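Input.
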Amino acid sequence: MSLLELIKTTALAAFQASNPVNIVLGKVIEAKPLKIEIHSKLILSDEFLLVAEHLTRHERIASIQFEYPKSYTKGQIGDEGKQTSSKRQNQGESTAVPYEEYEMKYLKLVLEDGLKEGDKVIMHRVQGGQKYFVSDRYKEGDSVWHYQQKQ
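Output.
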């Protein structure tokens, strides 16, 4: 073995021994306490998980600017064009009237869509393998534009 090959082999072995970050797919099997299954023999409990904030219940400050009528094209929204709509009805009024323009500054939004049973997640195994960072949910390619219907 040449000196160059020996250096390459040693460097590769050192890299593999350092246990770099790996991307892992999992499925939430329990939301509270959080448990994620990587495969049938490896289920991670919340003590081994670091979860990105957007996958938890959290607050944001936002502003709303609404204009009616307004259309959004497929290129602006993604899967199909959309038309804005609104309804307001004060107590005692018999019919709803659309807002034509509406603006609210600095409202507090509480985003409640945390991880739930059945969610498919992308995780990164942190160096050393003891912790996993849950970075996002994912969907299979054939269900990218599928939205839950109103119940």
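The longest strand covers residues 101-111.
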